[in-house]
């Protein structure tokens, strides 16, 4: 089996956000979720470019959906994490957990 | 939901340039529009701002992504196409590139100067907290005076607004420890000086507060420039001894490079007294309350602003005025940011220059826009064909973008090189006295800004051919291309040319006013005759000339020797030459038998002259007699006053016979009074555009100062006598450097250097603007002619004469020019306040200047329209009708 793809920090966030938002995930909702959970503003351009890159790497797929008439007939880009993407995320989780093994107490919030 | 809310079209269009085509981009644009509509309900303006910002974020990210992927993009092909396309139209390419180069070069050079002098922060920590503290005189408005010893010490003790205060005074030292005596610029500083500035030694150490040198233990700190030039950057310079004004000084430190405050200072000498040394005598002047000679530097305490400091100092000044009404009555205090003080006079000049350069950039961009639009209309057909053959709009957009960038580079790179050269030229030509001259260099930020502006212009107008050329409308474009263009682009082009002409006129009028100002200044009577006079300066060290008799004897003997030289008509000494850097500040004096009104202070410039001074400079004697050689120590003290002093303090009366004193208490019977024996005409003191000030001239035989200037009227060329004069002084005292040997004409001319410089600059701009306007006109008329080739051909076929056609085309152009001139006159009148401060001796609305400028511009415009007009007349009717 091939190695899971390496993910940058922001890319991890994007993939996680897409999963969190769920079926209706499209870029504005993903952006809103990331901003709310991190408490920081996100560069819109970085988000869209990351989506393209992730799709290019096969970790994400998108499909047009022209159901929404309010957009002048222009589609929404619905997003979905691929199995490869899930593998990559799992790999990140495992790596992080391994790196934190034994120092959980240090990482606890100060009382 | 705000269906009427549409996001800004320009932003959307610009964004679409960099986005890859495809449904994902459509979705993205729809996302943005969706969010825009949501925000539009909260406020349309804010929604628009948000859209632009978001668009920029997305556009920048995709543009960068595009660049990252260059190898796989169409860029190489686009580049090749762009280069080929430009090579096919060399005329257009060179005109556009030249225009860009001129615009970028001028903007970059002038802005670099303005940046270094005006904008860049001083090289000290928290430079915005550094201030100068001046004394102000009640009847002299904004005029700032230097400070007296007691005043400074009182401030140091009582003021709380400052983290630290220090005082300094410029003293040029005679250095006699090296092979030849030389004169070195330095300043005498109080002990807190370096701490206030916030500098640290690059080598050795700097004296700190409370560390006043003692009378015998004198120290000196070197500026980096001196350390490099005279000591060869040798660390062994530390601990060596310099003999300055006859006293040994130990070198204890070297300052880091780039720190030379005030400008040009090479030596920093800690004063052995609580106040800086007086250039005229090595005595402690801390108890002196009236005569100011030092400049006070302060660092504001944290959190204290200039207004708060000003308020505190103002209150202190009032207290002092109450306590000492005679000497301090009516005095105020002014706290000024250091940077503002340094830049002071220059600010209006630089603002005017920046304005001029902005205008020039505008004209250059307008020209490029024009040229690109002209080119665009010629290319509509080509592009329409491409579109009909299946080329995507996005691809074409990208290619046009590439072309614009290549063009911008063609103009920008030579422009940058020209800017480097131009900045060097500016620095070389710049007169003395421009602060921070050494820091001026081409600023990369400015260059990037200029490039960005030109790139943006190129971008916007380079894409002009695509206006209206949507996919699917290619057929109509094909039909329409080659015929007369649509009305709107033509109107835009005309508007651009009219604006160019107007802007050029503004610049030409400005330059013309500067030229006339200089002429007017040249015509100002300085009050003396400068031609044929040689000047030289000496400074006598106190070690050898402890008293006035010694100095007087030196001057007398020197003058005897100089007068004996062949070719010398007359010679004399004077304390401060007119229009030379003067002892700053005026001195208080008293008139025998007159008590000044409360708050009134009698002030006059203090001068010491030998016999023959007025005769040598041909300053008319109006009443009484001149200073004579007999006016020596053993004779009664005499003084000659100038007309300004006579009129101010003896209005309507004859001052001859009155007695005045500069020193001491008028009520003290031991005070030495000088009798006014004569009145002379006014001479210019500081600048040709400043009114004459009261001045009193004491006899050198009675009040010799350790500093003086020789004025020598020669029969021939003054410079022919420089070595002879040097030798004569050398024979009297071999250790004395004689410096600043110049002809008085050069000194006078030098005072106009700054103005001349401005005139040169403004003229250069005006010239460039004229040229660009001509190019612009030429471009527009050419285009117009090209568009109407068919019409012209038909007319000629129907029998119209070539002359008629030529004059038609010329008239066409003239109407635009006329409108531009009218607008230009209007704009100049509106802007006249901006230039008023620079103008002297001529009205800001001087009709001669305006008429001349209009005629000049009109002539140039005529030439610019003639060329295409003549071309029009050479059109072969048959070819014209066929090819249309």
How is this structure best described in words?
The complex is a heterodimer of chains A (111) and B (884). By secondary structure, chain A is mainly α. Chain A contains five helices and two strands; from the N terminus they run H-H-H-E-E-H-H. Helices cover 55% and strands 11% of the residues of chain A. Chain A is globular. In chain A, helix 1 crosses helix 2. The termini of chain A are far apart. In chain A, strands 1-2 form a two-stranded antiparallel ribbon. Chain B is built from 28 helices and 23 strands. By secondary structure, chain B is of the alpha+beta class. The two termini of chain B are 51 Å apart. About 2% of the residues of chain B have low confidence. Chain B is elongated, with a radius of gyration of 35 Å. In chain B, the strands form three sheets. In chain B, strands 1, 2, 3, 4, 5, 6, 7, 8, 9, 10 and 11 form an eleven-stranded mixed sheet that branches. In chain B, strands 14, 15, 16, 17, 18, 19, 20 and 21 form an eight-stranded mixed sheet that branches. Chain B has a four-stranded antiparallel sheet with strand order 13-22-12-23. In chain B, helix 12 packs across helix 15. In chain B, 51% of the residues lie in helices and 14% in strands. The chains are: A mainly alpha (111), B alpha+beta (884). At the A-B interface, helix 3 of A face helix 2 and helix 3 of B.
């Amino acid at each position: 089996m091939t190695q899971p793809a390496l993910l940058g920090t922001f890319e991890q966030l994007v993939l996680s956000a897409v999963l969190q938002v769920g079926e209706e995930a499209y870029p504005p909702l993903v952006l809103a979720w990331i901003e709310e959970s991190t408490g920081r503003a996100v560069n819109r351009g970085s988000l869209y470019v990351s989506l393209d890159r992730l799709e290019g790497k096969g970790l994400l797929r998108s499909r047009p959906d022209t159901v929404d008439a309010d957009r002048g007939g222009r589609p929404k880009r619905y997003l979905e994490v691929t199995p490869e993407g899930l593998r990559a995320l799992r790999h990140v989780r495992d790596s992080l957990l391994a790196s934190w093994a034994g120092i959980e107490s240090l990482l606890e919030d100060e009382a | 939901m705000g269906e009427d809310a549409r996001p800004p079209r320009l932003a959307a269009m610009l964004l679409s340039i960099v986005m890859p085509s495809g449904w994902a981009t459509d979705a993205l644009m729809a996302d943005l529009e969706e969010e825009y509509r949501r925000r539009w309900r909260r406020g349309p303006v804010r929604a628009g701002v948000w859209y632009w910002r978001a668009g920029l974020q997305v556009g920048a990210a995709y543009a960068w992504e595009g660049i990252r992927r260059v190898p796989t993009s169409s860029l190489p092909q686009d580049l090749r196409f762009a280069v080929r396309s430009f090579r096919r139209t060399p005329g257009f390419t060179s005109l556009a590139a030249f225009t860009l180069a001129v615009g970028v070069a001028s903007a970059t050079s002038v802005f670099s100067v303005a940046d270094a002098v005006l904008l860049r922060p001083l090289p000290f920590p928290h430079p915005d907290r550094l201030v100068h503290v001046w004394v102000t005189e009640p009847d002299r408005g904004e005029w700032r005076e230097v400070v007296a010893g007691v005043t400074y010490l009182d401030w140091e003790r009582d003021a709380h607004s400052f983290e630290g205060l220090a005082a300094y005074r410029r003293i040029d030292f005679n250095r006699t420890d090296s092979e030849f005596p030389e004169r070195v610029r330095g300043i005498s500083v109080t002990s807190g000086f370096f701490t206030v500035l916030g500098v640290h030694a690059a080598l050795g150490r700097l004296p700190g507060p409370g560390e006043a040198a003692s009378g015998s233990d004198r120290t000196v700190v070197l500026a980096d420039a001196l350390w490099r030039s005279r000591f060869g950057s040798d660390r062994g310079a530390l601990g060596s001894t310099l003999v300055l004004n006859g006293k040994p000084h130990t070198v204890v430190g070297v300052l880091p490079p780039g720190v030379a405050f005030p400008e040009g200072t090479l030596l920093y000498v800690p004063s052995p007294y609580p106040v800086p040394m007086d250039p005229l005598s090595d005595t402690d002047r801390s108890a002196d309350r009236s005569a100011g000679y030092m400049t006070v530097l302060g660092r504001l305490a944290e959190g204290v602003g200039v207004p708060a400091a000003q308020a505190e100092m103002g209150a202190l000044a009032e207290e002092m005025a109450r306590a000492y009404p005679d000497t301090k009555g009516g005095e105020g205090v002014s706290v000024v940011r250091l940077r503002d003080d340094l830049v002071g006079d220059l600010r209006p000049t630089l603002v005017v220059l920046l304005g001029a350069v902005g205008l020039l950039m505008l004209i250059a961009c307008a020209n490029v826009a024009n040229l690109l639009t002209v080119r665009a209309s010629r290319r509509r057909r080509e592009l329409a064909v491409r579109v009909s053959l299946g080329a995507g709009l996005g691809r074409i957009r990208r290619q046009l973008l590439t072309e614009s960038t290549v063009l911008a580079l063609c103009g920008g790179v030579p422009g940058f090189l020209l800017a480097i050269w131009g900045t060097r030229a500016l620095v070389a030509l710049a007169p003395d006295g421009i602060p921070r001259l050494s820091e001026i260099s081409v600023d990369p930020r400015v260059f990037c800004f200029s490039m960005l502006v030109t790139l943006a212009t190129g971008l916007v107008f380079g894409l002009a051919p695509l206006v209206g050329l949507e996919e699917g409308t290619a057929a109509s474009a094909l039909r329409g291309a080659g015929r007369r263009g649509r009305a709107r682009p033509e109107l835009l082009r005309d508007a651009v040319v009219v604006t160019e002409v107007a802007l050029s006129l503004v610049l030409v009028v400005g330059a013309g006013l500067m030229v006339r100002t200089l002429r007017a200044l040249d015509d100002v009577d300085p009050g003396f005759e400068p031609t044929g006079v040689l000047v030289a300066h000496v400074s006598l060290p106190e070690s050898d000339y402890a008293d006035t008799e010694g100095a007087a004897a030196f001057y007398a003997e020197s003058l005897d020797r100089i007068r004996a030289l062949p070719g010398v008509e007359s010679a004399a000494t004077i304390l401060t030459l007119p229009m030379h850097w003067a002892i700053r500040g005026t001195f208080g004096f008293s008139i025998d038998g007159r008590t000044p009104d409360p708050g009134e202070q009698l002030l006059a410039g203090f001068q010491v002259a030998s016999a023959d001074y007025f005769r040598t400079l041909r300053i008319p004697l109006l009443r009484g007699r001149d200073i004579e050689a007999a006016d020596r120590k053993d004779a009664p003290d005499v003084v000659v006053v100038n007309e300004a002093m006579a009129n101010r303090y003896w209005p309507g009366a004859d001052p001859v016979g009155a007695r005045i004193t500069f020193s001491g208490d008028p009520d003290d019977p031991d005070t030495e009074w000088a009798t006014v024996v004569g009145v002379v005409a006014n001479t210019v003191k500081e600048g040709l555009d400043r009114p004459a000030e009261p001045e009193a001239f004491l006899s050198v035989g009675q009040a010799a100062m350790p500093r003086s200037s020789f004025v020598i009227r020669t029969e021939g060329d003054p410079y022919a006598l420089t070595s002879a004069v040097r030798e004569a002084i050398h024979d009297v005292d071999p250790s004395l450097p004689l410096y600043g040997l110049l002809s008085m004409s050069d000194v006078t001319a030098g005072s106009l250097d700054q103005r001349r410089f401005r005139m040169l600059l403004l003229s250069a701009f005006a010239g460039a603007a004229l040229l660009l306007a001509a190019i612009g006109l030429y471009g527009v008329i050419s285009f117009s002619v090209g568009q109407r080739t068919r019409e012209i051909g038909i007319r000629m076929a129907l029998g119209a004469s070539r002359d008629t056609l030529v004059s038609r085309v010329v008239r066409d152009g003239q109407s635009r020019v006329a409108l531009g001139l009218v607008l230009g006159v209007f704009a100049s009148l509106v802007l006249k306040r901006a230039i008023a401060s620079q103008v002297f001796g001529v009205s800001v609305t001087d009709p001669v200047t305006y008429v001349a400028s209009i005629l000049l511009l009109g002539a140039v415009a005529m030439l610019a329209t003639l060329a295409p007009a003549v071309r029009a007349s050479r059109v072969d009717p048959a070819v014209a009708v066929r090819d249309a």
